[in-house]
Amino acid sequence: MASLPVRDRAGNRLTGFRVVTDSELGRLGDRVVVAASVVVVEHAGAVLMVFDGWRRQWELPGGSREPGETSRQAAVRELREETGIDGVQMVGVAVAEFDLVDPDRHEFLAVYRVRLRALPSLLVNDEVLDFLWWSPSGPVGEDMSPLDAEIARRVVHTPTG
User: Can you give the pTM of this predicted structure?
Assistant: First the structure.
């Protein structure tokens, strides 16, 4: 794992990563605004990365919360929309903290974990153009979000869920 902060090519920085329990993550929204959620989907030692057609990079499935949604509801919706994966056991495991640019802001991100026993059928769509099962012990390519890769590595090495 890298030491924080980790910076991407746009200047966004992952500044914090705190392991929490599922119930702590559910209550976090009472104290701070959690703008988005990501899901670390694991199978046979690999993590699912999606190729985002807009950002043109490999990243974790996830995205912004819609009005009235909890962090968990956003994670479930984004995972279903971006991959077709639905009806899986999802556990809240961490909160990540970012300093983002364009526009400049400080945000919190809910991090969930899903462990699969079998490979799922994945659905390419307008937003996600491809899928990659990435080994967290492997290198981070130039076309992969170093922020998401670092989150995935930290989740895989967290003995929760």
Answer: 0.95
